[in-house]
Write a structure and sequence with these properties.
- GO terms for molecular function: 5'-nucleotidase activity; metal ion binding.
- Belongs to the 5'(3')-deoxyribonucleotidase family.
- This is 5'-nucleotidase domain containing 2.
- This protein is an alpha/beta fold and 572 residues long.
- 40% of the residues lie in helices and 9% in strands.
- The protein has helices spanning 3-19, 21-28, 39-47, 72-82, 89-94, 102-119, 162-178, 231-237, 246-249, 267-283, 290-298, 310-321, 334-344, 364-367, 401-408, 422-431, 443-451, 454-473, 479-493, 517-525, 560-565; strands at 135-136, 140-141, 147-150, 200-202, 207-209, 223-224, 227-228, 259-261, 325-329, 355-358, 373-376, 395-398, 415-419, 436-440, 528-530, 544-545.
- Helix 3 runs parallel beside helix 4, helix 6 packs antiparallel against helix 18 (454-473) and helix 16 crosses helix 20 (517-525).
- It starts with a helix and ends in a 7-residue tail after the last helix.
Length: 572
């Protein structure tokens, strides 16, 4: 949303919270929870003894029952004008003089909040996100970048959605024919949109799940095979908690002793096959070892099919024509890369690149200096000569980053490398070598379309407002109030935004209320992220990307729930 729209929206919310019955309801209780705005406004309301909120079935009360604000200055102000003394904090907490029906009061607040959220979503709030935008986690000045590096799969080469079905079918048939798994597994067809990138798989328990940035399993997203696991069973399986310890959830490269995190886009059909095979064994009460299944599926043959490349050519041509040096480091074999690049860029594709390295064995390429470079001839055959330089037009295999740095001299922030795998492509470069990194996240296109919908805007705004309402009304402890609050809590936990994305696991960027494990790694290992490298075509090569200052919890005076509830301060 544009800055002007944000300012207009925020101002409208604040004005409404002061002037409508939202403010009046709270003023009726004269600060029993917290002030709804500037204390002078509240003080005047109480001084004038207005019957605030009477239209909602709430009996007006005088300010002797509950003070207008926790501020001592305002208490003295009211007392001096009305000859009343504000009660103490303990009196305020346990007062019983407020003659209202608590259930009616809470639902009135709820309904007023609903109306406010609905009415104050401004026209044009949707369709503001451009799927071709490049997002910055860190400040990057492209004018300082002289060398651009690329991974191949899902970076230079994009693939069609039908590829997932082809990969799944190939791996499923390989599992049955080569490893002699039951023929019944062959009856399981690929399920589009079942799995999502960034999920974790418990290798020994055979469970697929979504974990947030704080290592908590998102209840409702744990699957044994193709069936969800009830929340109470998840808690039993993990010792009464849904927290997974750091040493188990993931190592530096996404695999711990118990868990594997799937970060590759190609891993989506792999996760679906694991779920299908698990489902077959569980549905037929066949005893099996989930650990063996995981290993067998992971080594199945996953062939790849090219999608398009006209935008790839445009990006490479633009960078090269501006005098930028380009290099390619990929784990794919030369024959596969050569075929794909000829299709996308042309038979002279190697003229764009100063260095080409295939079968690099990332991430070990970036952290292990043991493997030397080998040169390939035009047919892809290995040569025996010692590598003393990395020359343009040649193809190299394996090697390591330490020799790469020594032979090229390309170091530090003047290098920007793009890849889709946060661990294999980007982690070491960001943390150990100081290169700039760009993450390719194809899912951004789909998720941006969802975020741009009115349904999402309404749902998210209401979720924030409901959270604020729950936080501020939780001091109502009578039985009827607790029942209302439980209804609200249940509504909040249903996470209405989840089903707008993947129906089983939701957005790859968020659990119900927290960033996902994937999101945390995305912010940690990438300076920039985007849907595809073609997004570079939208920016000048001297453009500077500036990250937006995302408020920390103590830096956010105008969260949406505070705007909607009319509170700018938290009180006790």
């Amino acid at each position: 949303m544009s800055c002007q729209k944000i300012r207009t929206f925020s101002h409208a919310l604040w004005q409404t919270s002061k002037s409508t019955s939202l403010c009046k309801v709270y003023v009726a209780s004269c600060g029993s929870v917290a002030s709804t705005g500037p204390t002078t406004q509240i003080g005047k309301c109480c001084e004038d003894e207005q019957s605030c909120g009477s239209d909602l079935g709430i009996q007006p009360v005088r300010s002797t029952a509950i003070p207008t604000s926790p501020s001592p200055a305002n208490h003295r102000h009211v007392a001096s004008n009305n000859q009343r003394v504000s009660p103490t904090l303990s009196e305020r907490a346990f007062t019983t003089e407020l003659q209202i029906d608590s259930k009616t009061y809470l639902w009135s607040r709820y309904n007023e909040m609903k109306r406010l959220v609905h009415d104050l979503i401004p026209p044009g709030v949707c369709n503001l996100l451009n799927p071709s935008t490049i997002y910055a986690n860190n400040e990057v000045d492209l004018d300082e970048v002289d060398i651009y590096g690329f991974d191949y799969d899902y970076t230079l080469a994009l693939y069609s959605n039908t590829l997932d079905t082809m990969i799944y079918n190939t791996a499923r048939d390989f599992l049955v024919k080569h490893y002699k798994y039951p023929e019944g597994i062959s009856k399981y067809d690929y399920i589009p949109n079942f799995a999502a990138r960034g999920l974790h798989y418990d290798i020994q328990k055979g469970l697929l799940m979504k974990i947030d940035a704080f290592h908590y399993i998102q209840l409702g997203t744990v699957y044994r095979g193709l069936k969800p696991v009830p929340d109470h069973e998840v808690l039993e399986l993990y010792g009464g908690t849904h927290h997974v310890p750091l040493q188990e959830v993931s190592g530096f490269y996404g695999k711990g002793p118990m868990m594997k995190q799937f970060m590759d886009v190609f891993s989506i059909p792999e996760m679906t096959l694991l779920a299908a095979a698990n489902d077959y064994f569980n549905s037929n009460d066949i005893e099996y070892d989930p650990g063996h299944l995981y290993k067998d599926v992971s080594v199945s043959a996953f062939n790849k099919y090219i999608l398009r490349g006209d935008e790839t050519y445009a990006v490479l041509h633009r960078l090269a024509s501006h005098g930028k040096k380009l290099f390619l480091i990929t784990n794919s074999p030369f024959s596969f890369v050569d075929k794909g690049m000829k299709y996308m860029v042309g038979k002279d594709w190697r003229d764009f690149f100063d260095v080409v390295i295939v079968q690099a064995d990332k991430p070990h390429f970036f952290n292990n200096c043991g493997k030397p470079f080998r040169r390939l001839d035009g047919n892809g055959d290995l040569q025996w000569d010692k590598i003393k330089s990395l020359d343009k037009g040649q193809i190299y295999k394996q090697g390591n980053l330490f020799d790469f740095l020594r032979l090229t001299g390309w170091r530090g922030s003047k290098v920007l490398y793009f890849g889709d795998h946060l661990y294999s492509d980007l982690a070491d470069l960001m943390l150990r070598h100081g290169w700039r990194t760009g993450a390719i996240v194809p899912e951004l296109e789909v998720e941006t379309r969802v975020v741009n919908t009115e349904q999402y805007a309404q749902s998210l705004t209401w979720l924030q407002a409901l959270t604020g309402l729950l936080e501020r009304m939780q001091m109502h402890r009578d039985l009827k109030s607790k029942e209302v609050l439980q209804d609200w809590l249940k509504e909040r936990e249903e996470a209405v935004t989840k089903n707008l994305f993947n129906p089983h696991f939701g957005s790859i960027f968020r659990t119900c209320h927290n960033p996902t494990f994937f999101s945390r790694r995305l912010c940690r290992f990438s300076d920039l992220y985007m849907a595809s490298i073609s997004c570079l075509l939208n920016y000048d090569l001297s453009y500077t990307f500036y990250p937006r200052r995302t408020p920390l919890q103590h830096e956010a005076p105008l969260w949406m729930d505070q705007l909607c509830t009319g509170y700018l301060h938290s009180h006790k």
